[in-house]
Write a structure and sequence with these properties.
With 277 residues, the chain is of the alpha/beta class. The chain has one domain: NAD(P)-binding Rossmann-like Domain (Rossmann fold, 3-Layer(aba) Sandwich). The chain contains 11 helices and 9 strands. Strands 3-2-1-4-5-6-9 form a 7-stranded parallel beta sheet, with helices on both faces. The N and C termini lie far apart (42 Å). The relative contact order is 0.14.
Length: 277
């Protein structure tokens, strides 16, 4: 790899959740090659080299707190990449929300005291969240509930309305939380918080989702910039670049890394009827 020290990762302490597979794995690998000290948090054992590995299930809030406590030993942490996530059909919509949003938010908030002032946080949402504005009023209700058990209880009270498929709603929540929390994190600690929104990407996540993301669905999807489905590495790079200290003026951003799909739908250049919506 060419010298990319200007990105600011060499010698810095980095935590990556979901670093055992998919985009998270590629983020961890690339950061290691950039000279970062990479610590991985995942439910599975990672295959890429790392400084340490903490096994944690984001659906287990006690385990999340314990993991964040253990990571105090490596503070100050300069960059955090919350990359863990799962599709709704694995254990249902409520579980999807519990992991993708509630568990991710809890882990991040628990780790904030261990972050250096001026640290960067960059997470993975999805272009499934591209319509987040139409559900904003309901999403703000959940956003206001910081206690994870109470947040999950709120979801359980009316899952059909509040959680829906679990995936879209959880990814919308990540976008709204990113934009909201970035203000306080920035004002208090100069910590930046951003998110990317990938379109379908060739990962184990997609392979596990064949009943929803079928071969026919992928074949019908327009991929304007690449002409094909993106690789996990091609999504990892925008996340790494977004979180780089070079982007000091960028926070609260939801960067769609979907090859131009969302913009095409917004402007009518792409007909999204094939999605069934």
């Amino acid at each position: 790899m060419n010298n990319l020290d200007g990105l600011g990762y060499r010698g810095k302490t980095v935590v990556v959740t979901g670093g055992a597979s998919g985009m998270g794995e590629q983020v961890a690998r690339i950061l290691g090659e950039l000279g970062a000290k990479v610590h991985i948090v995942d439910i599975q054992t990672p295959k890429v080299p790392c400084e340490s590995f903490q096994q944690c299930d984001l659906s287990d809030f006690a385990a999340v707190r314990a993991t964040a406590e253990a990571l105090k030993a490596i503070a100050p942490i300069h960059f955090l990449f919350p990359c863990a996530g799962l599709p709704p059909h694995i254990k249902g919509a409520l579980y999807c929300m519990r992991v993708n949003y509630i568990g991710t938010r809890l882990f991040t908030e628990q780790l904030v005291p261990s972050l250096a002032d001026g640290a960067g946080i960059a997470l993975i949402s999805s272009d499934a969240a591209m319509g987040w504005q139409k559900n904003q009023a309901l999403s703000m209700e959940l956003l206001a509930i910081s206690d994870p058990d109470l947040a999950y209880a709120w979801c359980e009270a009316d899952p059909e309305k509040r959680v829906r498929d679990g995936y879209t709603s959880s990814k919308e929540m990540l976008v709204i939380w990113t934009q909201f929390a970035a203000v306080e994190l920035g004002n208090s600690r100069r910590i930046r918080l951003n998110a990317i929104g990938p379109c379908p990407t060739q990962t184990a996540f997609v392979d596990m989702s064949k009943e929803i993301i079928t071969d026919e669905f992928i074949a019908a999807w327009p991929f304007p910039s690449l002409g094909r489905i993106a690789t996990a590495e091609e999504q990892a790079w925008p996340l790494i670049l977004l979180n780089s200290s070079l982007n000091g003026a960028v926070s609260g951003a939801y960067l769609v890394t979907d090859q131009g799909f969302a913009g095409g739908v917004y402007t009518g250049a792409i007909n999204a009827a094939f999605m069934g919506g």
